[in-house]
Amino acid sequence: SNTFSSGVVGSDTGPRTNLKLIILDEADQMTNAAQNSLRRIMEIYSSNVRFCLICNFMNRIIPPIQSRCTGFRFPPLKAEVVKRRTAEIAKMEGLRVSDCALDTLAEVGQGDMRRVLNCLQVTAMSLGPSPDFMIDREIVLTTAGLPKPSEISDLLQRLMQEPFKACVDWVVMMHQAQGYSVEDLVAALYRAVLRIDWPNVVIVQLMIRLADIEQRLSAGASSYIQIASLVSAFTEARFEIERLKFDLHFK
């Protein structure tokens, strides 16, 4: 970067200029040491270089760099926009995609069109040259390595009915044998719980526990310890539901 910044830009057909533009994608993945080195380069070559830093999480960019930049925040794309554009691209590529698959792709992408198209491309490649084959929800989930709704429904039922040790063994099996990440299981259970008509106090407590588990997983905590924590969260929710039913019975 230092060598590139100090050079002169020009072409055979246009005027020569000292002004350069450096674009760094995924800048939030840089270490603090690398960002401090970048900050120094930005200071030295501020007269002839403009830096464009693209990141997913601005809080991972060190404050000295943030203070030297103007921030532009781009919110995630709405699901309807993602589905409409995905359908257009699928049609141009000669792919048959069901409405349920479009919904699933939008859910997988979380507003990130690049992630959606990458998933669609991998799914299409896994099917091979099959123009008459319909891409459905199950195929998208399998390709993305995400648990299916039926599996999450079964898991939720087990968590609310079976003993603690049996539930831990089942989640470990899903993690090891089926290859589902604990983060994806937590996210899927979060969405499933929001659709259930449980008492608010139970849902609030469960959301707090799920958020803590997700935070610990992102920090590098042991997956197996967090699996036990996940099961314990639903065990507590089960006890709380039973207690509330008992209290209501005597009111």
TrEMBL record:
Coiled coil: none annotated. The keyword Nucleus applies. It is found in: Nucleus. GO terms for cellular component: DNA replication factor C complex; nucleus. GO terms for biological process: DNA repair; DNA-templated DNA replication. InterPro entries: DNA_pol3_clamp-load_cplx_C, DNA_Rep/Repair_Clamp_Loader, P-loop_NTPase, Rep_factorC_C, RFC_lid. Residues 147-233 form the Replication factor C C-terminal domain. Keywords: ATP-binding, DNA replication, Nucleotide-binding, Nucleus. Signal peptide: none annotated. Gene3D superfamilies: 1.10.8.60, 1.20.272.10, P-loop containing nucleotide triphosphate hydrolases. Pfam families: DNA_pol3_delta2, Rep_fac_C. It comes from the Eukaryota. CDD domains: HLD_clamp_RFC. One of its GO terms (molecular function) is DNA binding. The keyword Nucleus applies. Belongs to the activator 1 small subunits family. This is Putative replication factor c subunit rfc5. It comes from Amblyomma aureolatum.
